[in-house]
Amino acid sequence: MPEQSLLDTTRPNPGRIYDYLLGGHHNFEIDRMVAEQVRVLIPFLPKAMRMMRWCLQDIARTLTYERGYRYIIDFASGLPTMGHLHTAVAPGTVVIYSDRDPICVEYSKEILGDTPNVYYFQADCRRPEELLNRPEVQEILGDNRRVAFVYWGITMYMTDEDIARVARALYDWSDKESCWAVFVAEGDPDHPNARKFLEIYQQIGESIYMRPLSVFRELVQPWRPDALGFRTMEEWHGLQDTMTEEDKQIFAAGGGGYGVYLIK
Amino acid sequence: MGGGVGIEELLQRMESGREALTARMRAALEEHAFTNRALFPPRQLAEFARQEAESFLSFLRDPDEAMARERGRSLARQGLSHRSVLALTQALQEVGWESANPEVELWPPFQQTIGHYVRALLEGYMAAREESILEQQEKTRQALLRALQQRSE
Asked: Between chains, do B41 and A237 touch, taking CB under 8 Å as contact?
């Protein structure tokens, strides 16, 4: 997972590369150079990122308007710019964002200002109990443990052990019928272009883990998918034919990953 | 708009063809969906196209350039890419031309009106984009200062 600060400009930063590929301005020349290398290797990646990011507003509405969750706890949130969860939730919903990067946390507080019912804390998504057990968070939540967790676009930075541990920690902490919205990136790490892509990220100090969906399903036990199940990004957005044959060889068919609502 | 009988007729044609206008707007947005900031899930494009078509029709009824500029600002704030905005304005020109046909003599004044809308829209869009970038720079600076302060305390 991203270990570097957003404002460490001495080397490329995955968060800023992501921002650039999504058309943002929170990036520097050193990030754009790497992003362009990545784009050449995997032309579909910016599309995949958009499809993943498009889900956030759907998630916010589904969790709060349709399923009645009043508390959303988001991990590895990045910058809560327009279109992030708090902009689409039902009135009165409490949204707790978190990120491990202290600069990102401060920047996010600048963005959020005095937005009511929205909080931002520094926390590592690999150790969710540290956030959940913070006195400030416990004061916000009170006795409420029927909550919705969100890990969107971060599991590719987590090892299998991290994911299994997080799954257990969230399960143990939360009440029955709690929900965990997760995005699972799927791809073939042995494809030559994917290998080069992974190497680039290793060179900038990050590891990315592509894993089959079947492995992910096992890792998140005992959480169970809801009736919608694991949906490809094309299925999620009602799109077709977004990928070339080459794209499908690198990513699994369907948009590069799956989104799911896991239920306790 | 000019207010002549011909122009009024054109306005009516555009009004009655609003579904076609909306469809053209939607097609333009869909074509460039992957260039926008990540704020426009495809399912929302239809509603967005409807709003944009209504904004234009409203301008035809009452050419309020301040309103058009504000609409442009809104497009930028919501993360629409410049490619999407240009595609929208291209769609307006095309639909306008088709509505003017076959009365070709009506096209110049109509084109001028569309041009006023497009110019105001783009002015608002570009101004908001620039403001957004400057605002982001300032927030970055303040965030850095605060983080450094906290670390040194």
From this structure: yes
Domains of chain B, earliest start first: 5-126 (1.10.490)
User: Domain A14-225+240-263 maps to which CATH number in 2.50.20.10, 3.40.50.150, 3.40.630.10, 3.90.1200.10?
Assistant: 3.40.50.150
| DSSP labels, A84-129 | SGGGTSPTT-EEEEEES-HHHHHHHHHHHTT-TTEEEEE--TT-HH
Given a contact cutoff of 8 angstroms between Cβ atoms, the answer to whether A101 and A15 are in contact is yes
Interface of A with B (CB under 8 A): 7, 22-26, 46-47, 49-50, 53-58, 82-83, 102-103, 105-107, 109-111, 237-239
Q: What is the ipTM of this complex?
A: 0.73
**pTM for this one?**
0.83
Instruction: Please state, in angstroms and rounded to a whole number, the distance separating the CA atoms of residues A237 and B40.
Output: 11
Name the residue among A247, A253, A248 with its Cα closest to residue A235. A253
Choose among A25, A53, A106: nearest Cβ to B38: A53
User: Looking at residue A175, what DSSP letter applies?
Assistant: P
Interface check for B148 against chain A (CB to CB < 8 A): the answer is no
What Rg value do the Cα atoms of chain A yield, rounded?
18
- Contact residues on chain A for B141, CB-CB shorter than 8 A: none
Q: So what's the pLDDT on residue B41?
A: 80
Torsions phi, psi of A174, nearest 5? -95, 165
- Choose the closest CB to A50 out of B34, B44, B132: B34
- Token pair recorded at residue A11: 């080397």
Interchain contact B47–A (C-beta under 8 A):
no
Q: Which amino acid is at A29?
A: E
**Element of type H or E holding A232:** strand A231-232
Q: Is the pLDDT of residue A241 over 90?
A: no
Give A65-84 pLDDT, tens digit per residue.
Answer: 999 999 999 999 988 876 78
* Closest CB to A23 among B37, B133, B144: B37
- Looking at the complex, report in whole angstroms how far the Cα of residue B38 sits from the nearest Cα belonging to chain A: 5
